Hints:
Blueprint: H1 3-37, H2 40-72, H3 76-107, H4 118-146, H5 154-157
Amino acid sequence: MNKVKRIHFAGLKLCLALMLGLLVVPAYVVAPMLFSGLESAQAGLLAGKIFHVSNIAILILAVAAAVFSYRIEVNKATWYLLAAVVLMVLINVFGVSHMMAMIKAEAGDISALEDSNPLRWAFAFWHGLGSILQLVSTLLMVVLVMRGQCPRPKEEATA
């Protein structure tokens, strides 16, 4: 592999590692700490902002990863995995988060609602869906980072 392709390969590995970190740290480190130390409403507000910023950063890094992937001609499986992660993050950013914000705007503090309140159930549904998308996209990123010590360019994969 020539020097330029090695640089692109290193750029791809860095983008994928940062994307994985941005999926893991907010969801599995920061959010639990926020909810253990703050009131539920305040923790939820901060967690929502953190998720939004990290998801936008993931999308930006995904564009960079796509450019690097194109330059080193990675295999189709890499493209499919990257596309699946991007799709799930997009659904979380522009679908799930939007629905949760609409429910919060109507209901106020979700934790203050009665257990039988339909808005509480709707919020729980969207929160659960977002959590599942977060987990699956995290697992797919682990696969992307780990497979063959990161996706190899086509010319090395066949050698």
